[in-house]
Specification:
heterodimer; A: 733 residues; TIM Barrel; Rossmann fold; B: 2 helices; elongated
Chain lengths: 733, 109
């Protein structure tokens, strides 16, 4: 009897129908299943009839089962049982072997149904008349026996006794030569989850002891449906964990793809790679965009790369929207107070000369006034200390420091003694600063009061004696101080306008020939090199005129026409609503290399940089439309595909509309959405490489082969694919 | 003599200020500052503006040089009260120039 006549296609269809019925794939698998008592220690309840087998498999909802009796493979029973569940469940041949390594352990070996007879021969050769109750095989002999078969190996592990040692597990991997074929079987799902998190390939089976209670056993659940043993291996190669654990589950989200606003296609999108492929003009981009909008609307953070929009998107990278008018970037002050002082500035006029004449004319008219020498007094000459402003600022600083210290729970950080010392020193500093400040303020105010008193007494005395007192000042000092204050204010503004530029380099990606590429955010005050584009909200000519006026005032503060320039400055500021130096902060962005040299990327390079930036930003979901456009195939395969696969491992939703075979095929997507267009009829098929099917979403009987359609759509067809291969191989030879 | 910040003066620059009476109704204080003398008509309503021009010219000079105003009254000038007032006035100006020179230089040099 041969196994080749098993209807695999029927099984595949069943799995797909199941998938569509449930929405989420739940493929239960049992790769450790006993169907007969073979060793003395086995219970009779392990014997199962084909009828009971079928009933229990259906009840437990098992889609793949491997028959793994102790040290025996009964090919006749295998065929009977397989026949009993045809169309319901795949049955794989297997055996559970007693092995003597560093310690005794059990090792399950499973192969594909097509090789059941060969497998039977191998098992018979291995045991060759030995007493299966007591025989022990070596790892070397087991691996040598099954070397010619497409087999997987599942030793008992950890709490599943008798368990393989760590040394023997490493030896097994070495002997098999392919780690994807070696799994481990713990005792329960809790251990399964723990081991899976350690990135170990885990599997768990029923190890059934009583077929009447089979459905109550522990089973594993595959992450994705697989059509056959080879596809199971494909999945194992892609994801180390092929079965669901509590944490490693990748449940899809139900979404609606819209190739056109009037068409809705229900799709299951996985936190893994999801590919949309098919010929041009079938609405792939629209589907991708609609999925992006829906995912975004669901509150997930999403990143998008649309190759056909790369030029515009790249330009958007260099717009200034994300650059605030933040003067802190250039360590500058807004100088609002200084602008206000200029707007309000007025000249101090000299004392009228006639006041001197009137004083001279009436001098001596009143004897009593003549005795009052204060009427001859002039204003006190108070001038501010050089450190007046510094002491004022220091006083504010120390007050602030004390407030901040008081807000701290200092005892959390310092001992009581240290705390006391700190407070003593800070208070001492405060007292010293305050003393300086007090002296200056008292001096300033006493001078003001003295001058006020002199003027007041003179006025009273003039009134009562009908005389004019001597003027207290010629007015030169006030005149000079008014202009000195003006120049101080103007220079403060100009100092803040001449601060150094600030540059912030943000990496966007790297190019093969140029290395790292950055966007440089430049913050620079108005200067000769400034451009109109640096000031999107202001007219640069007005800014230049205002700055020129300030420079003129600074350089001509004692000129006759000063008032005219002050007026001109104030009018221009009012007209342009400028009240501080904030508008003078220019912003720009440049694409630069690691040396800071400006670089203009080509269209293809823009795509590369945008794509890298998109993929390196953290998000829940990534939507890429034709990422291969304008890029070399090797770049896509060596640089982009691994990033996509890494995102998939991190359970990110990655949806890619592509014509590139390396992305669409080699990423082994969890779901492939295939779009066709023929005679104005559009169709959507869904499937994946693991069950090798693409099923029409509107007609479950319309099924295509994933392999054939991928080859046709992505590789140019079967002939083209193989011809290329032959040419490459011929050149290679 | 020009100087830079921190330097001291050896000798102040003398600015001559003449009190003259070109006619019977006019008394002029003529400040010899800069290339062209500046006149202040002591009997005119515009006298205050003329004084501002003189102040500005003196302060420009004061940035770089110590200056001292020296009142010159010719023998032909006969109005004693004006002489007395101008003497006081020039003294006031000299005092105020001395008062502001440090502030001025601190700001501008």
């Amino acid at each position: 009897m041969h196994t080749d006549n098993i209807n695999i296609a029927d099984q595949r269809i069943y799995i797909n129908l199941y998938k569509f019925k449930k929405g989420e794939i739940r493929v239960k698998i049992d790769l450790h299943c006993h169907t007969k008592k073979t060793k003395t220690g086995d219970g009779k309840q392990r014997n199962v009839t084909p009828e009971l087998f079928k009933e229990k498999i259906a009840l437990a909802d098992i889609r793949i089962v491997a028959i793994t009796n102790h040290n025996v493979f009964d090919v006749d029973q295998y065929m009977l049982l397989q026949g009993a569940v045809t169309g319901l469940c795949q049955v794989w041949p297997g055996v559970e072997i007693d092995v003597q390594g560093e310690s005794k352990f059990h090792l399950i070996v499973v192969t594909k149904p097509e090789d059941a007879n060969r497998f039977s021969s191998c098992v018979n050769d291995l045991f060759g008349g030995e007493n299966i109750d007591v025989c022990q095989q070596t790892l070397e002999k087991v691996c040598e026996t099954f070397k010619s078969l497409d087999a997987i190996y599942i030793p008992h592990f950890h709490d599943k006794k008798p368990a393989i040692s760590e040394g023997d597990r490493n030896k097994l991997i070495e002997l098999v030569g392919d780690s994807a074929r070696v799994f481990i079987e713990p005792r329960n799902h809790r251990t399964l989850g723990v081991l899976s998190n350690k990135d170990l390939s885990v599997m768990i089976g029923s190890d059934v002891k009583d077929w009447n209670k089979y459905e109550e056993c522990t089973f594993a659940e595959l992450r994705l449906s697989v059509g056959n043993f080879s596809e199971f291996l494909l999945l194992a190669r892609r994801d180390r964990t092929v079965v669901n654990t509590l944490l490693s589950k990748k449940p899809p989200v139900d979404m609606i793809g819209k190739p056109h606003h009037s068409v809705s296609i229900p799709l299951s999108i996985y936190p893994d790679v999801n590919i949309i492929f098919g010929s041009k003009g079938t609405g792939k981009t629209e589907i991708l965009k609609s999925l992006f909008s829906e995912m975004l609307g669901s509150g997930k953070s999403c990143k998008k790369y649309i190759a056909s929009e790369r030029s515009e998107d790249f330009s958007a990278l260099t717009n200034l929207k994300d650059m605030d008018l933040d003067l802190d970037k250039v360590h500058s002050s807004p100088c609002e107070e200084q602008f206000r002082l200029i707007f309000e500035w007025t000249d101090c006029n000299p004392t009228l000369f006639s006041n001197y004449l009137d004083w001279a004319k009436t001098k001596g008219n009143s004897n009593s006034k003549s005795r009052m020498k204060i009427t001859e007094a002039i204003h006190d000459n108070y001038s501010m200390s050089n450190k007046y402003d510094i002491h004022k600022s220091d006083k504010n600083s120390i007050d602030q420091i004390i407030r901040l210290i008081q807000a701290l729970d200092i005892e959390e950080y310092l001992s009581a003694d240290e705390n006391k010392q700190l407070l003593i020193l800070v208070r001492k500093l405060q007292t010293a600063v305050l003393a300086k400040r007090e002296a200056e303020v008292i001096s300033q105010y006493s001078s003001k009061m003295t001058n006020w008193s002199i003027d007041k007494i003179k006025a009273l005395s003039d009134k009562s004696t009908d005389t004019i007192s001597r003027p207290s000042t010629a007015g030169l000092k006030s005149f000079a101080r008014g202009r000195i204050q003006l120049i101080h204010v103007v220079k403060t503004i100009l100092t803040n306008l001449n601060v150094k530029e600030h540059n912030e380099k943000i990496r966007i990606g790297s190019l093969e020939d140029k290395g790292e590429i950055f966007i440089n955010h430049k913050y620079r005050m108005l200067c000769p090199e400034a451009r109109t584009a640096n000031y999107p909200n202001y007219n640069i000519t007005n800014l230049r005129q205002i700055k020129t006026q300030l420079e003129y005032i600074r350089d001509h503060v004692f000129d006759d026409d000063l008032a005219k320039h002050i007026e001109s400055f104030s009018s221009k500021c009012t007209e342009t609503s400028i009240k501080s130096i904030k508008p003078f902060l220019g912003r720009s962005k440049q694409i630069v290399d690691s040396n800071g040299e400006e670089y203009e990327p080509s269209n293809g390079e823009k795509g590369i940089l945008l794509l890298q930036q998109t993929l390196h930003e953290d998000a829940d979901a990534y939507f890429l439309d034709e990422p291969e456009l304008g890029m070399g195939n090797s770049y896509i395969d060596t640089d982009i595909r691994p990033i996509i696969c890494d995102l998939a491992k991190r359970r990110k939703y990655v949806v890619v509309a592509t014509h590139n075979a390396n992305i669409a095929v080699r990423s082994l997507p969890y779901t492939s959405i295939f779009r066709t267009h023929n005679n104005s009829v559009y169709k959507t098929y869904i499937g994946n490489p693991f069950d090798d099917l693409l099923v029409n979403v509107n007609d479950k009987d319309d099924i295509l082969s994933w392999t054939e359609e991928s080859m046709h759509s992505l590789e140019g067809g079967h002939d083209a694919f193989y011809e290329r291969r032959d040419i490459y191989e011929a050149r290679g030879n | 003599m020009r100087f830079t910040k921190g330097e001291t003066f050896m000798k102040p620059e003398e600015i001559k200020v003449e009190l003259i009476a070109p006619d019977t109704d006019t008394d002029i204080l003529r400040f010899h500052v800069g290339d062209k003398p500046l006149d202040v008509n002591l009997n005119s309503a515009e006298c205050q503006n003329s004084l501002k021009d003189v102040f500005a010219a003196l302060l420009k000079l004061l940035i770089y040089s110590d200056i001292n105003l020296e009142l010159l009254v010719g023998d032909e000038y006969k109005r004693v009260m004006y002489v007395e007032v101008c003497t006081e006035y020039i003294n006031d100006l000299n005092r105020e120039l001395a008062d502001v020179k440090d502030e001025l230089r601190n700001e501008l040099l």
